[in-house]
## 1
Amino acid sequence: MDISIVVPLYNEAESLPELAAWIERVMAVNGFSYEVIFVNDGSTDSSWDVIKRLAAENPAIKGVAFRRNYGKSPALNTGFARAQGDVVITMDADLQDSPDEIPELYRMITRDGYDLVSGYKQKRYDPLSKTIPTKLFNATARKVSGIHNLHDFNCGLKAYRNKVVKHIEVYGDMHRYIPYLAKLAGFNRIGEKVVHHQARKYGKTKFGLDRFVNGYLDLATLWFTGKFGGKPMHFFGLLGSVMFILGFIAVAVVGFGKLWDMHHGNPYILVTDSPYFYLSLTLMILGAQMFLAGFVGELVARNSPRRNDYEIEEDLC
Ligand code: UDP
Ligand code: MG
């Protein structure tokens, strides 16, 4: 099979027939063999009925329904597990992404050798309250992930080599960082294609402004686990040691300073009257805590059943 199209959706009943017809048209014109996997993320409208009807009309249309609303990432992950096509395309169900982009995305994966191609909504039809924070979000994501050529990490329209979706796990709200997940899994041929974007025709957006707060927290998590997940001591141990040593030096200076002054008959103040005493106390306590956090982290990492799971690309043994 050439293409699997994975569509996560939550209350998008009005859009679905139009989207399915449009996909069918593009696939027929280009002669692709394909499947569409609609993942119904616990919709409370008639989305699932619509999907069942569409599936009855066209055997290429498939669906899977969650019992409740889990979020876009779990929906994508479920679709990925089922995808059989050589190239996997994800797109939003709200008709903001155009199926007309699919042939070119397919070509970029199969001919140009990309592992992942992300859409770039260069001209967006979204409110300003969304586009401005998005710019900031993408700049940060570029910096942290080291994927400097992407302008639009969270674009719903993306194409993947089948192997990529089988080797990444999208959970929580991590769909915003799939290119980063792919890179962490060792897929680094990541490209971008400018895509057309349309205003939402039916229904309303499912994400509020909290997406940006949560987005940054998730980015911090990914960065940390990607860099130190397997060796937390390298982060906490270093930080803790530096803090402890600084605190120790400072307290030593305060203590010896006083003894020196006493010995030479100079006026002196109580150690506890010096602000540096409290600063060094804080540094030493926090430093020791950091160090311990590193140890506990190492114990956790040591017990992970996946600590020696490596992706082996080729093996001549
Ligand atoms: N979506 C989903 N589960 C959710 C929220 C959203 O499957 O809990 C789907 C939604 O139906 C749409 C896609 O994710 O197909 C993108 O959502 P939306 O269009 O609301 O996001 P926006 O375009 O505003 O970023
Ligand atoms: Mg949308």
## 2
Amino acid sequence: MNVLLIGSGGRESALAWKIAQSPRLTKLYAAPGNPGIADIAQNLDIKVSDFDGIAKAVKDNDISLVVVGPEVPLIDGLADFLKTTPNPPLVCGPTKDGATLEGSKDFAKQFMVRHGIPTARYKTFSGDTYDEAVAFLKTLQPPYVLKADGPAAGKGVIIESDFQVACNELKEMFSGKFGKSSAEVVIEEFLTGIELSVFVLTDGHGGYITLPEAKDYKRIGENDEGLNTGGMGSVSPVPFADKEFLEKIDTRIVKPTIDGLIADGIDYRGFIFFGLINCGGDPYVIEYNVRMGDPETESVMPRIDGDLLDLMEAAAKGDLSGKSINFNPKTAATVMLVSGGYPGSYEKGKEITGCDTVKTSQVFHAGTKTKDGKLVTDGGRVIAVTALGDDIPLALAAALQDANKITFDGAYHRRDIGKDLLRKDWLRKEERGNKHGK
Ligand code: AMP
Ligand code: GLY
């Protein structure tokens, strides 16, 4: 079959790499793709927001399956739109109703409460109910968690320890700090624990396949210090997610979510990303995303043995029955090379060298482009390097060794991805969290 992959980041590079291995694939297209994806697919110069352009590409290239990488086109209704076109393709990615799980934090919280899925206690407020919002804040222990209801490019969550500063932030959010996305704000209890990401692929009819879990590293600095980024690296599997903990996730969170979608009449076909936190051995949902994670996908894809395209097609058709997945038992570690200055301001257009010298790891392009025949940086997060190893230290060492072979002016990467998960550090982190939180 011909497949069209929507998106252009590290996540899509890893999805493209996996899809390209499928015996079921005839030809892979990407819109718009990136120079790394171009090695295995035909890139089409179409923006992810250009629904008409995407529909035309589907028709012109005889596409049977569209795989949607990022959330924005899903929240904006790409899957719904494609269904209205003549000879519609299959789509791996939810329609607008399902995508609201990511598009509205309030919708997601109401969904969890309605279906008994463990999550932080919360209330939602608007500018008209500012005084009530402040009264609710007073009932919570610091730090205070404020979340813009709508999408805010990953920036809409504020965690603030000072009560007065939190009130001021709230006022700014209601006054349009995140545009209309913060017209409503979810205020919730702070949960103390360690986070992980769990992914399932579901078919809208109760069938689902759970992919390898992962943990991502959001802070720019080592030891999780400094500003938040789009993700500096990831590991899979997550050592504390043992069989018992994964079973709790399945029975308390994944199954009730899948059943809840059906009960609510939402025909959800695609990936669900459960952003979870382990609070003293019990999993809670921090957020839902309606896509794979980035940079988790870069660690998860190399751990899937077998044909993911076959599973995505079955999910998009609405029938995963009889399908299963095998995991590679090795550990994957992903290290992200970023531009100097990121996540603040940074320059683009720096020449990247050394990608072709990497032989062991997988190199996934995130923010790159080709200019005058040269590969140059084109974003904050530039290249992800993933290695497999027998454990976290070995996988990380292999990924770092290869990351060091890739150079561009100002390149930076963390050297401690996954190290907190080595038992002693995890205990120290818990102690730190308890001091900070409840
Ligand atoms: P979100 O966009 O909802 O994933 O929030 C961004 C980040 O804020 C999460 O990855 C967590 O690290 C943190 N966070 C969000 N909600 C909470 C919460 N209730 N308790 C503790 N940390 C949270
Ligand atoms: N790694 C977190 C995300 O993709 O949202």
